[in-house]
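Hi,

Apologies if this is the wrong queue. I'm a grad student, and the batch job for Integral membrane protein from Cellulomonas humilata produced an output file that my downstream script rejects. I'm not sure whether the problem is my script or the file. Here is the sequence I used:
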Amino acid sequence: MLELTDAARITAGAVVLSVVAIESGGAFLLRVATGKEQATAFQKTFYRAGHAHAGVLVTLGLVCLLLGEATTLTGFWRWLAQTGVLVAAIVMSAGFFFSAMGRGREAPNKAVVLLGVGAVLLAAGVATLGVGLLLG
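Support response: The file is valid. Your script probably expects a header line. Output copied below for reference.
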């Protein structure tokens, strides 16, 4: 049986519950797709991307959380390896949704910077985990 630290178990539980928020994003996308919510082509694209990134990165983040338990990393490096992807899921999804907000928007607003921040967190998290796994 997989042994988790209390911190990893609590984090995993909270993340699994966050899927309800991702589901509400899916419900919003359904309203957009059926014309019940108005959105430009640009907004539809960014809303889809935000929803997809949330789902995929939360799943990857849970895997990273579990794999981080198999490393000898400590402190900040362990935190980054185990939760960097989960933070990236929040930041990147927020970047897609927030930068597309506003009636009739045809291009991203300044919140698009969150996509770059999220990408850095994603890369740092998976790189740290990969090195931690290779080192033992």
